[in-house]
Write a structure and sequence with these properties.
mainly alpha; 91% helix
Length: 321
């Protein structure tokens, strides 16, 4: 018993005793149920509000479409009435002219008035082609006019009709202006395309002319270069032939007078020997003079043996300097 009391005191110190699991489940289920029911009520209320808003929108759209339809019908009536009145006036005027021409027995004016009446009647039949539709529209106009009791309402109806007629006239003028603008733009576009084609054709022609001129210049330059090359080749051949002829003539002169050739070679070797160049250069220049002279003075080349020996001995002494 003492232990139980101690346990109870210990539990009291720790806090209140916890609830049973089943009790907790019941409380939580009630709370969740309440929340779910509130949520369902809110969803239903929102759906109802959305349906009402959609109905209002649909009704407003129907009213707008009906008003637009009535407006279009009234505009159509006004347009048809204006055209019909203009054509009818033209027909009556043409009939008056025809009566006047009959009285004056003017056949030309009579035929002209008849053609005008014919055109006017054709236009009227064209206007009244859809007879039922036009009759209904005119009937609506007359009923509106008849329902207007006082002058104020009739004036407002006249103002509306005039406004519709003015709107139709403005729309017609606008359509005419748009058509004129489109025609002008198309004409300008065609002109631009034509000018562009002419410009391209002219550019192509100029390019062809330039190409032909370049080809002609190149051909002329090639011909000139060929002629110049031929002239230079001829000049070179002539110069070579002249030089060879002069060389042959000099060789013959030297062979005819070998002593002067010998003296000239000795004089050149002495000049080389007394010059201030190096020894190797002196030997190279002297060797050239000796070889050139030996081709003339050598006995096998038709020269004198005595002069060749003297030249050889002098050249040997020249190499020993």
């Amino acid at each position: 018993m003492r232990v139980d009391k101690e346990k109870r005191g210990h539990e009291h110190q720790l806090g209140p005793r916890p609830l049973n699991k089943n009790v907790c489940n019941i409380i939580m289920s009630r709370r969740v149920g309440l929340n779910i029911s509130n949520l369902e009520n809110n969803i239903k209320r929102n759906e109802q509000i959305l349906k009402e808003a959609e109905k209002k929108r649909v009704n407003a759209e129907k009213n707008r479409m009906n008003a637009e339809k009535k407006r279009l019908e009234m505009e159509k009536v006004a347009q048809m009435f204006i055209i019909y009145a203009a054509v009818k006036t033209a027909e009556e005027k043409a009939r008056v002219e025809m009566e006047k021409a009959k009285k004056e027995s003017n056949k030309r004016a009579e035929t002209k008035a008849k053609s005008k009446i014919k055109k006017a009647s054709e236009k009227i039949t064209k206007i009244l082609k859809n007879g039922k539709e036009v009759a209904d529209l005119f009937f609506k106009l007359t009923t509106i006019w008849a329902n207007a009791n006082n002058t104020k309402e009739r004036k407002s109806i006249e103002a509306k009709a005039k406004k519709l007629a003015n709107n139709a006239k403005k729309a017609e003028e606008k359509a005419r202006r748009n058509a004129a603008n489109r025609a002008r733009n198309e004409r300008a576009l065609r002109q631009w395309h034509r000018r562009e084609a002419e410009r391209k054709a002219e550019a192509a022609a100029n390019a062809n002319r330039k190409a032909e001129a370049n080809a002609k210049r190149q051909a002329e330059a090639a011909a000139n270069a060929k002629r110049q090359a031929e002239a230079e080749a001829n000049a070179k051949r002539q110069a070579n032939a002249k030089r060879q002829a002069e060389e042959v003539q000099r060789r013959r002169q030297r062979q005819a007078n070998p002593e002067s050739v010998y003296k000239e070679a000795i004089r050149k070797l002495e000049y080389i020997k007394s010059s201030r160049i190096s020894r190797n250069q002196k030997l190279t220049e002297g060797k050239k003079v000796f070889r050139k002279t030996s081709l003339i003075l050598h006995p096998n080349k038709g020269g004198k043996e005595e002069l060749f020996k003297n030249l050889s001995s002098y050249y040997n002494n020249f190499k020993k300097m």
